[in-house]
Every structure is written in structure tokens, then in C-alpha cells.
From TrEMBL:
Source organism (scientific name): Dinghuibacter silviterrae
Residue span(s) of domain FecR protein: 131-220
Protein name: FecR family protein
Transmembrane segments: 93-111
Keyword Membrane: yes
A GO molecular-function descriptor: sigma factor antagonist activity
């Protein structure tokens, strides 16, 4: 942060005033570094009370050096501004006391944010979706497509000292390469580390599994319950973790169990990949249990789907959906699988056809 420039603009604002471009520059600095807003408000209030020409008593360089030394050494001797002391009325004494207090507060603020080893607190940014798919470009250039009912969060300094994202739901990442700052995606207990690649993560809270599908590059996958064990993935591989704990783990509540590492097979007709076709507003199923298909359709159409029997829940569904509404989608799937359905106030009930 250009502290000298920020100090200069603040001092000039309350002394001789700023030009239009200078005021725009100051506004931009204040918007980027919100800790400075508090200082600006203090100076504004002091001006309202009649404090003018704040830099008359001490120039910028001397005041900043003096204030920093006072904070570091915690000295208590009287302040010498290098000016003859003259009697002042009580009102003037009060005003100058405010001036000194403002400069000490300003100096402490500058010293605090510029002192090595004491970075300002990081506030998380957050991007969320409800019923729509969202495309986002992160500060480091990483491209993200968030599926419906999904959310990511990341820190304000993302891409500078670290690249860490927390995901709930489903997202496709095309990661900007940065070998010195790897990107880490945390999807519940599953952690994915990557330098630069493209992959998909599905980690909805309601799902029983967490899936990671690698499209390009390579990634390392681990779980919080067993951080020492990592799985290196190659392109067109998919790994699935079950949220149910492994039976032989000591930390059963914390550690998900590994289910399988499988190959991703692009569709022969159009080379599309089922795991990421949702980014193109499509749903594709290949011999997938109807229960799993129903979870995807619930998020896709914003409805609740129940099953009246185990047989319908375990039906294997193959098909694709794109622009169909809910009724059209169910009718199309009926042509491929033997089931019936009813819709009542936004709730779909599926039953196996006898």
C-alpha cells in the first residue's frame, strides 16, 4: 500500500484542498484499504469542529517520524513541535489538543498497518448462488462456474500470499497457473491442491458423496481426517469419497471413506463429459440410479422429488435433459424407464410401474 501517498492526500485535503483527480485518487485508495476510512472520518469530524490547517504545526516527514518513535518507545516527555509557545484561550487549547490527538491516532494507524509481521485482518469475500448458474473470474484469473444452490468463499488477498477456496455445492474450476502459490479447494473434509488445471467438484450438503473430476492437468486430493495421505490424479480421472466414515478409523466422525477412483469417458457422439455438461445447461445420465438423478433434478428444477418404493429409487436411468421443463423431462424419462409420477404443490412422487 502506498502509505506516503495516502498520508499526503489526507493531509492536503484538510490543508489546501484537493483537485478533482486527486480526490478521485484518494477515494480509490480509501475504497481499497478500508482501514483508512476510520482515519478519514476522524479528520472530517475535526474539520467540522473548526480544526484547520492540520499540517501547519508539523510537516509530514517530521510528524510521522516523531509519532512512530513515540509508539515504539512509549515516551512520556512533553511534545516539542519546534515552535515558540504562546498563551492560548481555552477554546484554542482544546482545538490543538484535538489536533495532537488526531495526529497521534493517525500515526498509530499508519504505524500499525505498515509494521512488518502485522498484516491487517483479512475479511472473507463470498459469492453465492440460489437458483441460477453463475460465472466468476477470481482475482488471480481463475475462472469458476458455480452450479445452482452452490457457494464459494475466499479471502481478500486471494492470489497474493495464498489461494484458498471453500466450496459448498458444485463448481467447475479452470485454474490460473501459479507454481509459487498453489490453489487449495476445501469441500467439506476433502482438500484439493492444484497449480494450474481444470476440474469439477461436487460437494452438496445433502449428497452422500463428494466427487472430484479432473479434466486437465494434475491435482492432489486429501481428506482432513488423514492429511498425510494424498492421491495424485491424472486427466480424465474421477475420485469419489463417501461422507459415511470408514468402519476401521479411529476418528470416524471426521474422516470420510474412500470409495473409488474411476476413469471419465467422454461421450462418443459429441465428446462431451457428463461430469461437466451442467456448465453448458445440460444434464446427462448413464445407467445412474434414479435416486441420484432425482437429486440433480431437484437442484435443476427447484422441486422436491420423493419415491414411494425402493424399486423406483433403484431404477437405472440413461438419458439427457437440456431445455425441457419439469413435465417434459419426466415424460421423456418415462419413455426409457418404467415409472409413474404425480405432482402436488411442487412435490414430485415417483413410483415403479407394475
Amino acid at each position: 500500500m502506498p502509505l506516503a501517498r495516502l498520508w499526503e492526500l489526507l493531509a492536503r485535503k484538510y490543508n489546501d484542498g484537493l483537485s478533482g483527480p486527486e480526490q478521485e485518487e484518494l477515494d480509490q485508495l480509501l475504497s481499497e484499504h478500508r482501514d483508512a476510512l476510520e482515519l478519514n472520518e476522524i479528520l472530517t469530524r475535526s474539520e467540522d469542529l473548526g480544526v484547520k490547517k492540520l499540517t501547519t504545526a508539523m510537516d509530514e516527514a517530521r510528524s510521522r517520524e516523531w509519532i512512530a518513535s513515540r509508539i515504539e518507545k512509549k515516551e512520556t516527555e512533553p511534545v516539542d513541535f519546534g515552535m515558540p509557545v504562546r498563551p492560548l484561550y481555552k477554546r484554542q487549547g482544546f482545538v490543538w489538543a484535538m489536533v495532537i490527538g488526531i495526529f497521534i491516532g493517525a500515526g498509530f494507524w499508519l504505524y500499525r498497518i505498515s509494521r512488518p509481521g502485522t498484516p491487517p485482518a483479512e475479511k472473507p469475500n463470498q459469492v453465492a448462488t440460489s437458483l441460477s448458474k453463475t460465472r466468476i473470474t477470481l482475482p488471480d484469473g481463475t475462472f469458476v462456474v458455480l452450479n445452482k444452490n452452490s457457494q464459494i468463499s475466499y479471502n481478500r488477498d486471494f492470489g497474493v500470499r495464498q489461494r484458498e477456496i471453500t466450496l459448498t455445492g458444485e463448481a467447475y474450476f479452470d485454474v490460473a497457473r501459479n507454481e509459487s502459490v498453489p490453489l487449495v479447494v476445501k469441500a467439506g473434509p476433502v482438500h484439493i491442491t492444484v497449480l494450474g488445471t481444470a476440474f469439477n467438484v461436487r460437494a452438496y450438503a445433502a449428497d452422500s458423496t463428494i466427487e472430484t473430476s479432473l479434466i486437465r492437468g494434475s491435482i492432489e486430493v486429501s481428506s482432513s481426517g488423514d492429511p498425510g495421505r494424498t492421491i495424485l490424479m491424472r486427466p480424465y480421472e474421477k475420485i469419489v469419497f463417501s461422507k459415511a466414515p470408514a468402519a476401521n478409523t479411529r476418528k470416524a466422525k471426521e474422516e470420510p471413506s474412500f470409495v473409488m477412483l474411476d476413469r471419465i469417458k467422454p461421450n462418443t457422439a459429441d465428446s462431451s463429459i457428463n461430469e461437466i455438461v451442467w456448465t453448458q445447461d445440460r444434464l446427462v445420465f448413464q445407467k445412474e440410479p434414479f435416486q441420484s438423478v432425482a437429486w440433480k433434478m431437484e437442484r435443476w428444477y427447484g422441486v422436491k422429488i420423493n419415491f414411494s418404493d425402493t424399486g423406483s429409487r433403484n431404477l437405472l436411468i440413461t438419458g439427457s435433459l437440456e431445455k425441457e421443463n419439469l413435465a417434459e423431462a419426466l415424460n421423456a424419462l418415462q419413455q426409457l424407464s418404467p415409472f409413474d409420477y404425480t405432482v402436488d404443490r411442487g412435490v414430485v412422487t415417483i413410483s415403479k410401474r407394475h
